[in-house]
Amino acid sequence: MELIVFQERGSGAQKIEGVQKFAEEIRIIEIVSIDIFLPDFIENPEDFINKDFTADLVLNFLKHPDLVDYLVSLCNVKGIPVVSAGKKCGGFAPFTCCGLGKSRRLGAYGERFGLPEYKVVLDNDRIVEIEVLRGAPCGATWDALLGCIDCSVEEALTRIPRQVQYFCSADPSGFDPVSGKSPVHFAGYVHIAALQKAIAEAGSGSGL
Predict the structure, then answer these.
(1) pTM reported for the whole predicted model
(2) Which of 30, 150, 157, 192 sits in a 20 to 30 Å window from 144, CA-based?
(3) Tally of structural domains, the chain
(4) Does residue 66 have a pLDDT over 50?
């Protein structure tokens, strides 16, 4: 699967690194970085984004609303799915990168990244092994779960939201007015929910 990433001043750097590290079947073929000062209003966004591109999926880490709208409209015309986490726009726009649901249109990216999924191995009440099946492209899922291995179930469930929030690259000040949660709080919630599910499935499989 081939991806193109659009970013402003390194805004997608951590996710780019995570995709390259945790998904060997996905190739980032181009990174379009806009690193100059931008005016409040951009009348001609085509001056900043060349429309002659093609890919299986676009990751949108742009921040300027005029550029975001233009990029999403371009992708719609081209029939290219675009993921714009934290943006209020068309395409796939989850609250956070780790809030992305599954869709066949997202291909290998959607199978590997989005709402977290794990497989856990238990030894009595201790977690001895965790496999990440799906996680955050920023890498927070993989980094956070390392601290839960060899922990008791109770300890792991207490630790995981703190660990995720420590590694999360989302802006903690971006509160959603409807839920009252910040992206960092949301990330902690979806990761603990996924761990609870994996623990329950492991316990059921072992007869506990």
Answers:
(1) 0.91
(2) 30
(3) 2
(4) yes
